[in-house]
Known about the structure:
The protein is an alpha/beta fold. It has 10 helices and 8 strands. It has helices at 25-32, 50-56, 84-89, 100-103, 109-121, 134-138, 142-153, 181-194, 213-216, 234-245; strands at 6-11, 39-44, 63-66, 94-97, 125-130, 163-167, 201-205, 224-227. It has an 8-stranded parallel β-barrel with strand order 1-2-3-4-5-6-7-8, surrounded by 4 helices. α2 (50-56) links the parallel β2 (39-44) and β3 (63-66). α7 packs parallel to α8 (181-194). The longest helix has 14 residues, at 181-194. The structure holds 2-phosphoglycolic acid (PGA).
Amino acid sequence: MTNKYMYFIANWKMFGTLKTLNSLKKVISFSNNLKKNKLRIIYCPPTTLIRPLFKKLKKSSIEVGAQNCHESKKFASLTGQINASMLKDVGAKYVILGHSENRQNGEHNELINQKIKTALKSGLKVIFCIGETLKEKNKNQTYRILNHQINNCLKGIKNFSKIIIAYEPVWAIGTGKIPKLEDLKKNIFFVKKKFKNKSIKVLYGGSVNTKNIKDLKKISTINGFLIGGDSRDPKKFIDIIKKTYN
Ligand code: PGA
């Protein structure tokens, strides 16, 4: 049983329509019965659902985040793009940046650095994703990669109070695989040590589910979870939260 303050962040990726939001009733009533100072639930739906979800959650303690944003702080002639202030305007409090699915689409550390700076300046909190690929892990390069991603994506940023790190090994995302607990513990320790500041929050993400949560929660240094697939099923999402505390 843990008493730690934990984050449970739902990353819906490119899933969900207005109809999907009806399924959140269960999560809303579950969260209304929780002690508010114990945990934080954040939903990051596709951009199209941020506003309707924000309205739906107005009376609950659940917060809303976005999944990415453009690096420009100013409005600009950029067809199809959305910047951080626009996300804030419709109710987002957080934005996920540096997710490996976007890195695979060409987002590099320098661009992520610009996005993080803009998001912070616009008043959003940042869920900053880092993690090694399978190839890098097999070459024992995990620490080197994490170090590089942190140094370059957070270059020039001195205040980390609005940044939550999500350690997500790329090979664990959507695969059903998670790291050996021993390795995960070491990697989380490595990340926290880099910040010296013990209050930095480090979450784990990558195939978190209702079964492996019993093991994952044993790592007392983890401050919460970024959950993809199983966050789209309200029952499973609630189950993960319950099992973390029981
Ligand atoms: P997953 O996704 O839980 O489906 O592995 C996690 C993520 O990509 O944030």
